Amino acid sequence: MAALIIVSFLGILGIYWIASGPSRRHKRHQTLAQGVFPASWRAILKKQVAHYPLLPDHLQQELRRKILIFLGEKQFIGCNGFQITDEVRVTIAAQACLLLLNRDSDFYPGLRQILVYPNAFYVNRSERDAAGVVWERHALLSGESWSQGQVLLSWHDIIEDCQHPFDGFNVIIHEFAHQLDQEDGHADGAPPLPSSERYQSWSSIMQREYDLLCRKADAGLPSLFDYYGATAPAEFFAVVSETFFTRPGPFAAHHPELYAEFTRFYRLDPAQWR
């Protein structure tokens, strides 16, 4: 009888622990956000993150708070001899948190670690061709998002992006857009949205624009979006997210309906920042 009571108590305690998870997470985030943001970190933001001085004051403040939370929760690991410094951590966290501004967020809940390489890195890939034959190959990458809880990044490519912040490319934004897409368990170009009506609008406009990019890629026609976005809907979402933050003016001018979908999703209008 005593054993049964103990088991029942532990079961109730476990249920309570699971149910109280969001509340505990919220309190932890509040505590982290109230920490001190060092002056040296602000200097890193001004040096490395071109978006930061363009943000309205309230978004600058929010970005600093989100950086504190992000850095308090995520582990950074240097690979191939790369040394993790405050410059590395703040530069990556700031651009990852751009995607979270104006949003209630669990701060990439599936993400545990950011692995940083000094340069582009090789990963093993298995691919099945039309005949069903599986081929193994080495792929040279500047970044990759894994559903197992890691994002892999090349510091060399990050620095290139920081030096050319409005050229349409940003590996950090690309890979963390994948993390948002994966929050519902699938990397399919349809991140979690608040309602079925939003999914209908999102699906219709994204499919039309994805098909257009595929046609342009096949024909070699100019496109605001990198052709890599034509390889899969998930890549299209990540590529368009890069363009949203790094070339918002041309994006809004040439693809107004798609831009409107992304302003609703990210709850931001970067075209107004410049």
Automatic annotation (TrEMBL):
It holds the Pfam family Peptidase_M90. GO terms for molecular function: aminopeptidase activity; metallopeptidase activity. This is Zinc-dependent peptidase. Transmembrane segments: none annotated. InterPro entries: MetalloPept_cat_dom_sf, MtfA_fam, MtfA_N. One of its GO terms (cellular component) is cytosol. Gene3D superfamilies: Collagenase (Catalytic Domain), Glucose-regulated metallo-peptidase M90, N-terminal domain.
